[in-house]
Design brief:
This protein is an alpha+beta fold. The chain is built from eleven helices and 19 strands. The chain has helices spanning 16-27, 40-45, 54-62, 67-72, 92-96, 106-120, 240-250, 302-323, 327-354, 362-377, 379-390, and strands at residues 5-12, 32-35, 51-52, 74-76, 78-83, 86-91, 101-103, 124-125, 128-134, 142-147, 150-161, 179-194, 204-206, 213-219, 222-229, 264-278, 281-282, 285-287, 293-294. It is globular.
């Protein structure tokens, strides 16, 4: 094994959280190295989120990563809720004082951030598998990893784990020093990409006695669509025609409307779970994004929570290297977890209000409809949903 190299901040994980943190640190002149387990092609093409909160959009613009997003992204001023064969639109700007969201696929955001990282010359190592993080409670933690067929070592001042639910960074926190909270849902999403223009100008969230459906998009010519399905569903059991028929049935309303159909290019099943680990910092190891928390995708919070984590963390690290102060680093876990639990609650609300459990009683269905009626008839309830959906202000 070679002599360990050293950097100020070592980032494990080259997804949006790790790449954005590297970009923010580079802007402030702080050295960092990004270790990504997968190859570049895989990272740039894995399908994930597509809804960016107002705060996420603002951060990307401020760090120079918003040019293509502003050119190709789709600004949305609201969403549509469908239930009981009726459609109700929520107008975000009027409910939030002007806040809105942007539809821009995570795949495209990751491509933009990778290009910026490589252009800057800052180290970004693909196919660099982190094996272990050692010395979390020391002043010089060490990462053991493999790259180009050799085991190597990297020491640093701080380790930031952006390596997701199954990453190794979290294991650097002793079990006795961390606590996990989780909830698994009794259904999943069948997600598809289709080469067909969207059937709607804005996202449609549909509640029906057949289950939940979401009609979304990636571009003006590509639709992203989801169906609630039982856990363990095999996408092969859903031929294209069955998918289109079910989407049409679940989003039907008593008004003129047509679901556009076309060739489906990809299918996958997404599990639904809520998961949080506390604290998000132990010694010189900090967790961000999916390494610290998972939300069901119904509320479009996952990517945006990761951005909020690393935006605050970048500020904290800048304070540390410019002034020597650690007040923001010491506050990192507590401040981020307040936002995380708010997003967990919102995602839980959206999920349980819109999905139909297999053993759900008629009474429970009526409660769901009553809740949806309140959101669409009460300005206060509508504003609460809109404020959470467009994103709470960054700390």
């Amino acid at each position: 094994m070679s002599t360990p190299q050293h950097t100020a901040v070592a980032i494990i994980g080259g997804g949006p959280a790790g790449l954005l943190l590297a970009r923010l640190l580079h802007h402030s002149g702080i050295d960092c190295v990004v270790l990504e387990n997968r190859d570049r092609a895989y990272v740039e093409h894995r399908q994930r989120a597509g809804i960016l909160e107002q705060g996420t959009v603002d951060v990307l613009r401020a760090c120079g990563a918003g040019e293509r997003m502003d050119r190709e992204g789709l600004v949305h001023d609201g969403i549509e809720l469908r239930y009981d064969r009726r459609a109700h639109r929520l107008d975000f700007p009027s409910l939030t004082g002007g806040r809105r969201v942007m539809v821009y696929a995570q795949t495209e955001l990751v491509k933009d951030l990778i290009e910026l990282q490589l252009a800057s010359g800052a180290p970004l190592l693909f196919e660099a598998q982190a094996l272990a993080v050692e010395g979390a409670d020391t002043g010089r933690p060490l990462i053991r990893y493999t790259h180009q067929g050799r085991e190597q070592a990297l020491t640093c001042d701080y380790v930031v784990g952006c390596d997701g639910l199954h990453g190794v960074t979290r294991d650097a926190i002793p079990e006795c020093a961390r606590r996990t909270y989780e909830r698994d849902y009794p259904y999943s999403w069948l997600g598809v990409l289709a080469d067909v223009p969207p059937s709607c100008d804005e996202l449609i969230y549909a509640h029906s006695d057949r289950g939940f459906a979401l009609l979304s998009m990636r571009t003006p010519t590509v639709s992203r669509l989801y169906l609630q399905v039982p856990n363990g569903t095999d996408p092969a059991d859903w031929p294209d025609e069955r998918i289109w028929d079910e989407l049409e049935a679940r989003s039907a309303i008593d008004a003129p409307w047509k679901l556009e159909r076309g060739p489906i290019t990809a299918k996958s099943v997404l599990p639904m779970r809520s998961w949080v680990v506390e604290p998000m910092r132990y010694g010189r190891v900090l967790l961000a994004g999916d390494a610290a928390h998972i939300v069901p995708p119904t509320g479009a919070k996952g990517l945006n929570l990761a951005v909020a984590d690393v935006t605050f963390l970048a500020r904290a690290l800048v304070q540390r290297y410019e002034t020597g102060a650690t007040e923001l680093l010491d506050a990192y876990s507590g401040i981020c977890l307040r936002r995380v639990w708010r997003a967990e609650h919102f995602s839980y609300f959206m999920t349980t209000a819109l999905h139909t459990a297999q053993d759900q009683s008629p009474f429970e269905t009526r409660l769901q409809l009553a809740q949806l009626d309140r959101v669409t008839t009460s300005p206060h309830a509508a504003a609460e949903l809109a404020e959470n959906y467009t994103g709470l202000p960054l700390a």
